[in-house]
Amino acid sequence: MIDYFQYNVNPKGRKTGDCCVRAIVGTLGISYAEAVERCAYYAKTLCYGITDKEIVEAVLKDFGYVKMKQPRKKNGKKYTVGEMDQVLTKQQMQDGVLVTIANHHTCITEGVVQDIWDCRYKTVGNYYVMKEA
Questions:
Q1: pLDDT tens per residue, range 45-62
Q2: Domain limits at 112?
Q3: Within 10 Å of residue 8's Cβ, how many Cβ atoms?
Q4: Which of the chain's termini has less CB crowding within 10 Å, N or C?
């Protein structure tokens, strides 16, 4: 199972509805300000809300990330965030992965879920990994 590290990249330490920004920061290793600026740019350009999945996808695409379908086990059951070590390669976990769950985005960086709350028990929706060369 993947480990969890409680970490809040919000510069003011606020626990607010900025999970997409925090997940982008953790996945890409960019500053909070840069992540907000990129999200705002795409929100203005694409006419979506700043936290919509289309905005997250656009920002990640700029960095060479691709969207992956919801992973399923051989028996058809869905994976939890904590089980993503069974889906991802070591390189992907090292590079950084953005994971969507119901009403939330989180990241796996260096093989650890880094977020303000432990969401490892939640079911994975889509996830984003660095495009292979």
A1: 999 999 999 999 999 999
A2: 3-130
A3: 16
A4: C
